[in-house]
């Protein structure tokens, strides 16, 4: 695995771990340990303790920031469970660039983190001339004019 990929997976693991710690405040939290989680954990554990601590500190800051903006992460509704999972990379090819997802299935609610590290700029969504993001994300297709313009 390339170092950039391994580093990205390690950061995904740190985000999932820090998110689960942060919101485990008496509500039901389930951290799904799927194959993506295991891969990310293995990548994380391959780095030095110093590097692991840096990933966790960065992830903790990101989680703190997002939880301040989204109260549904920390505040359970009617004994609801929040599920945290690391999503497969295939979803990115399908237009869903989120790496770590927190879901409240009972309320049909979710939020995702696109984990970026070693990058000085904020990443934009990966829009494509082949993927109708409006239809994929919101159920409302982008206009033909937009799709034509983005395809140029």
How many strand units?
4
Give the neighbour order of strands across the main sheet: 1-2-3-4
Radius of gyration: 17 Å
Give the termini distance in whole angstroms: 34 Å
Q: Counting H and I runs of at least 4 residues, what is the number of helices?
A: 6
Coarse morphology: globular
Structural class estimated from helices and strands? alpha+beta
Q: Per DSSP, what share of the residues sits in E-state strands of 2 or more residues?
A: 5-15%
Main sheet? 4 strands, mixed
The parts where pLDDT drops under 50 for at least 5 residues are 120-124
SSE pattern, N- to C-terminal: HEHHEHEEHH
Binned, the helix content reads 40-55%
| Overall pLDDT metric | 84
Topology:
Layout: H1 3-23, E1 28-31, H2 35-45, H3 49-69, E2 81-86, H4 90-93, E3 100-104, E4 109-113, H5 133-138, H6 144-150
Parallel strand pairs: 1-2
Antiparallel strand pairs: 2-3, 3-4
Helix pairs in contact: 1-2, 1-3
Which key features would you list for this structure?
alpha+beta, 46% helix, 4 strands, four-stranded mixed sheet, 152 residues
Quick recap:
With 152 residues, the chain is α+β, with helices and mostly antiparallel strands. The chain has six helices and four strands; from the N terminus they run αβααβαββαα.
How would you describe the overall organization of this protein?
The protein has 152 residues and is of the alpha+beta class. 46% of the residues lie in helices and 13% in strands. The chain is built from six helices and four strands. The chain has helices at residues 3-23, 35-45, 49-69, 90-93, 133-138, 144-150; strands spanning 28-31, 81-86, 100-104, 109-113. The chain has a four-stranded mixed β-sheet with strand order 1-2-3-4. A hairpin with a 4-residue loop joins strand 3 and strand 4 (109-113). Helix 1 (3-23) packs across helix 2 and helix 1 (3-23) crosses helix 3. It is globular, with a radius of gyration of 17 Å.
């Amino acid at each position: 695995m390339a170092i950039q990929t391994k580093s990205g997976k390690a950061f995904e693991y740190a985000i999932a771990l820090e998110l689960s710690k942060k919101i485990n405040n008496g509500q039901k939290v389930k951290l799904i340990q799927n194959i993506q989680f295991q891969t990310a954990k293995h990548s994380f554990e391959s780095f030095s303790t110093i590097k692991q601590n840096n990933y966790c500190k960065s992830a903790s800051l990101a989680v703190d920031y997002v939880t301040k903006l989204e109260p549904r992460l920390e505040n359970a509704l009617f004994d609801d469970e929040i599920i945290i999972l690391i999503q497969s990379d295939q979803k990115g090819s399908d237009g869903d660039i989120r790496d770590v997802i927190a879901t409240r299935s009972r309320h049909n609610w979710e939020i995702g983190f696109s984990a970026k590290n070693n990058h000085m700029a904020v990443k934009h969504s990966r829009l494509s001339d082949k993927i109708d993001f409006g239809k994929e994300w919101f159920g409302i297709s982008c206009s033909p004019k937009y799709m034509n313009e983005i395809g140029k």
